[in-house]
Amino acid sequence: MHNSTNTTGEAMHPNVIPFNPEGDFYFSKGVQAFQRRDFDKAIKWINRSIELSPKQPLYQCQLSVVHTEIGNYHSANQVLMDVLAEFGHEYVDCFYLIANNYAHLGLFHDAMKYAKEYMQKAPNGDFKEEAEQLLTLVDIDEEDDDDEDWAMEEEDELMRYQESAFYHLERQEWQEALPILDDMTRYFPSYFPAKHDYAMALFFNGNQIDAIELEEHWKQENPSSIHTLCNLSVFYHLAGKPEAANEHIQQLRNVYPIHEQQQLKIAVTLAQVGFYQEAYERFVVLPKSKLKGHLSYYKWFSISAYQRGEPSRALTLWEEGCLRHPSLSQQGGPWDQA
């Protein structure tokens, strides 16, 4: 390996070749950072290795694993989709990793689809047991599987919509989120979270009556929907209808979902309706490493901590949230949120 450049600031001899590390050098640094759970540095170094060696899909797959570990499931899947598009479907592990990310997002139909594709392409692959467990866990109705099966291009488009909507919703940019969510409900009618997010954006954009009517309609179709219970709890609470709010809050208090995204949604909802102690108890058991990408995690965890008499922890959470999500600093502080 070539000698490194002179670190003293002196001019280098013209015959000395400067050290120009290949991608594997930075990739190794990224893996080491990942093993130390220093995820920010891991992403930095692995991205650098990809810049130097863009034709090495292993680096991109490892980047997706880092994103998964910190809860950036959309970003992880986008990286994996890019690998499949550029290097072909022989990189079969991508199918399991995509399925796992979809399961965390609550997109169970898509999780099952990719898990099955992995099992078909690699029946004895490294993730065989994990894929089998995932297929057992994801219990959905597949009667119309062929009709609902989306092409890869459509799924890429859905992910772009998801990223855009998530960006605006986390920042409470309701007016910007509404047209994106409206398109999602029309173009991807079987992606049910979009319609609930649309109702939420509608409510906070000033159309409270329409938002409540939408959720009440969907409640008739699926009375146990976590999305509906959360939205109606918040809607009725903020609309000054405590009895109607309490009806849904009491149901929600007995729900303990498996997936982190749904766990976070319930914790945030309980904080929003003033059940700070119960919200706090839900937040403290959430896997922080998987939810760092959510501004709402830091915001409502901090508020819950402050309201239960832990101002120091509340401030620490808020400051960390502001570092990761600078727009949070524009929302005051945990002491301003009661």
UniProtKB/TrEMBL annotation:
Keywords: TPR repeat
Keyword Cell inner membrane among UniProt keywords: no
Extent of the signal sequence: none
UniProt feature coiled coil, ranges: none
InterPro entries found in the cross-reference section: TPR-like_helical_dom_sf (IPR011990), TPR_rpt (IPR019734)
Keyword Disulfide bond in record: no
SUPFAM superfamilies (UniProt xref): TPR-like
The TPR repeat ranges on this chain: 23-56
Domain of life: Bacteria
Name this polypeptide is given: Tetratricopeptide repeat protein
